[in-house]
Amino acid sequence: MKIKIKLITFYSLLFFLNSCTKTEFEGPSIANLYGDFELIEPLILTNKNPSFAINEQVGFQCEFNKPVQWKIAILGLSSSAYKEISGFSNLIDSNNVFWNGGPSQLPFFSEEVCSVELTIENEIDTLRDNITIVSTKTYENGIWLEDFEDGLPEGSLIHYNSDGGGMTFFVASDDPLLGNSYFKMGGRVNWDWPLGNLDIPINNANVSQSSNDFYINIGILSDIQDLHSGQFINILISEEKDTPFNDNLNNNASDLFESSMEVYKMRVPVDWDGWQIKSFRYSDFEPVSPNNTNINFNMNPNDIRAIRISCQACPSSVGNPICPENFGKDVRTDIDHIIFTTNSSLLDQ
Amino acid sequence: MKRRIQLLLVFFAILSSEYNLQAQMNDNIWFDGLYRSYFTRDALNNSTTDDTLSPRNTSNGYNLLDLNTHINPIKDIEIFAQLRIRNSFGSFFGSASGTQINVRQLKARGVINNKFRFSVGDLFLKQSKFTLYNYDEELSGFENDMFKPYRDIIHYENFYIENRWRLQGIQTDFSYEFDRFIRSLSFDLFVTRPSGSTQINETTYSSDLLLSGGSMVSEINKRLIVSLNYVNLFEVPSSGTNNISVRNPVYDLSILHHLSKDKYRIENKIQTGFSKRFWLHSELANGELDTISNHTKGLFFELDNKFIKGDSSLLLTFGYRYVDPNFRSAGAQTRRLDYASGNINTTYPIYTNMSLIRPPSAFDLVSDDQLYNQDLSSVLMVFNPIYSNILPFGDATPNRTGIYLKAKINNEKNLFISKINSGFFKEVIGQGASEKRNFVLIKGFFKINFHSWLNWKKELSVSTSSESEFTKRDGEAVSSLNLFSHQMNTSVNAELTKNLFIQASYKLFNANGNEFLTQRDDYGNITYFASTEIDQKDHILSLGMLYKFRKNAYATLNYNWWGTEFTNQPNLDYKYNRLILILSVEL
Predict the structure, then answer these.
(1) Do B432 and A210 touch (CB under 8 A)?
(2) What topology does CATH give the domain A144-342?
(3) What distance in Å separates residue A20's CA from the closest CA in chain B?
(4) With an 8 Å Cβ cutoff, are A17 and B479 in contact?
(5) Going by C-beta distance under 8 Å and a sequence separation of 6 or more, which residues neighbour residue A341?
(6) For chain B, how many structural domains are there in total?
(7) Is pTM beyond 0.80 here?
(8) Interface ipTM > 0.90
(9) What's the DSSP call for residue B247?
(10) What's the whole-number mean pLDDT along residues B385-400?
């Protein structure tokens, strides 16, 4: 009898465990993943008349029956400015998916009507709506800004090859990115790489972010007509502490960019037509003299003392024919709106 | 052809030389170790026409000596160091590229006061099958003798010894004997560090990962043994810059009852336990209290019964197992083969004129020791359902319930050996659909020793095995699946002269059907099911010879024809040949 009770108890336990299966399932539904697409909630815009100048946002809300690759495209009907937001999910949540008025790339949006289109990959449905921008976003919310609106920055130095032809190293106002002024950098030096540079002193004493969270943003205007295929900008940033910005008064250039100093560089090929805003994470810059063991390359935005924007191009003359196809072409790498931002690049803010 | 003749001459020269390698000993210091020469020549098969970018053939190899030094400074302490000298073919001693000298293992062990044993350094640890256990890799179940040299190298190079994990730390064990209530009580405790803090980027460091645990085994009486096991895998947030750290404690209890008679022995074992896993968020800003996330709990239960005939001619095992979908045990569920780590095949990793990454075949799994993993993983690792879909994490595979039956039958005169391994499982909870997968596993092995049959002194044996896995899920057409994989092995072993064997084998693996590959996030949560269609056939044909100098000392020369055919698949077929020479001597 005792054995029977034990056996009954044991088999009851086995039955209990074996029947202890659950009716729901793990993970997303395969029927949803591979079944037909359905719209659960239509596209809703949280603000159809945003004032981006006072930091208003437009949130997007939509829900599908399964995770899909979606894309929201915003097009300025007057400016042709364009912004794209994309993701892979079954829910577009207005708390996480929003637009703060910036474009994906230039031009900027103006006070205008914008079309909004939500498209789903591999689905024919397109959801549409409109937004009317009441006031546009401003781009002055950075740590340091140089917009050339008041001429050259105080203490800055310009040096260029005066033997070149058509050298344009000055503040101009015919085609600015923002505001009324910008800095023209260009000309023709067929026989050598450097054309000239603009050196600007910087005081970053209040910056506490690390180099991973610190961005350098700069607007660059390239050739509109006849592109010089070998032109580029070198951005040099100096963290040299012991030397004055303009130590040698005779050379018309800053003395903080010597090879024996803590200097970082970023090379930017300039090969497009018109203005673009380029953004670089400071930690992506490389040391100019990495093999110099006397330099402590402890990259720190707080220690930045100066920035050099250097215009260069591949030589093309008979004496130095590295890029002969560019012989006689003018270089144009004009700049405007240099701004440091933290945590994200200017257009992502 | 000329090169092959030269290799054969080298092979026979090795056979004809006299070997007199033996460990040197004295009272305080003694040596042992392993010597290995390994040479391969891989070639594209002559029928390959769509790969003009890969070299037609390549040679690789090395000589290595692992010298184990055992030092007994005093009677109760032994210091052990394994020094490796490895020289790749084509390099010379002193060149940075080819010759390596490094310390492979270091350990001290001893006994304190004749009561407590301890070990410090490299440890090889194993507990129960649900707490800490290094399960065998795919395709290694009923493998034939021809692949044993390959398998030995994979196991040796990855420190796979008796299903133990190689860890670094400290261990102690001690036991007591009693004269009433219970007969004995023994303890085993350890603390190890599977991985240390490493720099992820300029300002971020990962945390130390530790594994600690202990076992208590008590022999209650002559028939009853009770075991308790505990392991915990955890990170120490203060050792890095991350304030999120994993915790994975596992508890295990087993009761073994055995009954021994003159003609048979019966063993019954009940094993159960549970696990927890969560991520602790600590050292939060503004003095906030610690929180946890992704918390899962799961239990397991197994009833295992064995019948062993007194003369060992019959071993029967049958049982029932339930493993909860949320049971997580890093020590028991970490896989040897890691498909997600970015490992690519060593032999012809890129193929075809499109420079595609070559998907691994059965031959790669059998021969490539670089595909294998030595690190414990806190989340379930990716597996390939083609080669293992039913128990990819061994008996600790979560979300399985079912019965199993194993048998081993030997003939009294050793005329034949046969083994059967079967299992009928189903999921506890569906994945992506309410319907559950059903699994059927059937494996069989049969070996005939003709020399015993014919009373020959020299060995002549033929073995064959068949291993099949069926996976099926009914329900809606969009979520239903059906996957079948089958592996067939045949081999012949013939001893020509004393200790010189001629060997031939053929392995055919084919899989077809469809499955949904599970994708998980960093915390092991399922995020997606990737639908995949499968129809492939792997083959390995081998022919060669083996000379056994003595136990664990042999030279083998083989030629392998291998490849994979895909039907209606995005991958392209491939075929390769390999000539391999291995000389392995345990000192």
Answers:
(1) no
(2) Jelly Rolls (2.60.120)
(3) 7
(4) no
(5) A141, A142, A143, A215, A217, A279, A349
(6) 1
(7) no
(8) no
(9) E
(10) 95
